[in-house]
């Protein structure tokens, strides 16, 4: 393949990541419309977020194992078909229970698709540029937060929340066409098997990496979940300014993802360690200075950059921990990401309910990131002991 052909193939795969990012986060902005239309409580509406996250956690390793021996391009297309079917079910759902099932099914292909797309991209460009290639695939999530999610939320509010599911299904359909025509065939590694992938579960470095990912991303979600409350009640922004506040955070995530990809090609765990230190520092400063509007926005941007630096580095590290089980190892990144989503929201909510104030989730995130620094140092020690490059 020429460099141009590789670039188009990787962008095609990243389009799927964009569709996944839209469905994962736009549901939060449309919850009110869904709750009112289907006549359910706000607590039940929150289950639509949880059902998707559970689908990711369950589906990532299961579907990754199913794809261990399969040709990767065909398997990516199969996962997109599952994704589209789940969204059509959500679009036509006659009641809340059916919609909840649709959200769970929508989450199942999430991790396996990203794992497959990341491995395909890394193989296309080779070891020297794999971090940047993986970053492009993962950037779909971050870019969705900046552009796709606000646009689809606006359309859903104007024309009905069901349109979000149809639009996402359409994006996935376009991804299928692009991948079918632009991406090359990639056979599974020689000797790949389900048993071989499962044997990777006995790898200590893999589990340390998963723990590192959960801890590392939980701080970001502790801030993100309660960002609107902090922006209005602590910083003093108006409700109308919230889209811009979220945009600044999303812009930091996009830039951080690409920076992390570049840095990962220099040093995988070195990037993780530096990013984790920066996350701890910026979250602590954010908590302390959130009452100063311009400072809060700068620090929020920095939190987005440093947190997203972790994404390509963690994805690459998990692949490195289990070279004989890359499909399963890569999928765990997304299980960990969604587990961190749930953990960050829970920890942030507990600290607020304890009467510690709206700054408490950011402090909790800083503490989690500090623990992550220690885990990163341990991961570096394990990697050096295994005689591998840090």
From TrEMBL:
Query: Coiled-coil intervals in this record?
Result: none
Q: Which SUPFAM superfamilies match?
A: MFS general substrate transporter (SSF103473)
Q: Which UniProt keywords apply?
A: Cell membrane, Membrane, Transmembrane, Transmembrane helix
A GO CC term attached to the entry? plasma membrane
Q: What is its membrane topology?
A: Multi-pass membrane protein
Q: Give a Pfam family name.
A: MFS_1
Q: Does the keyword Transmembrane helix apply?
A: yes
* MF term (GO), any: transmembrane transporter activity
Q: What is its main location?
A: membrane
Q: Provide the protein's localization.
A: Cell membrane
InterPro entries assigned to the protein according to its UniProt record, in alphabetical order? MFS (IPR011701), MFS_dom (IPR020846), MFS_Efflux_Transporters (IPR050189), MFS_trans_sf (IPR036259)
Transmembrane stretches, by residue range? 7-27, 47-68, 75-94, 100-121, 133-155, 161-184, 205-226, 241-261, 268-288, 294-314, 335-356, 362-382
Q: What is this protein called?
A: MFS transporter
This chain's source organism reads Nesterenkonia salmonea
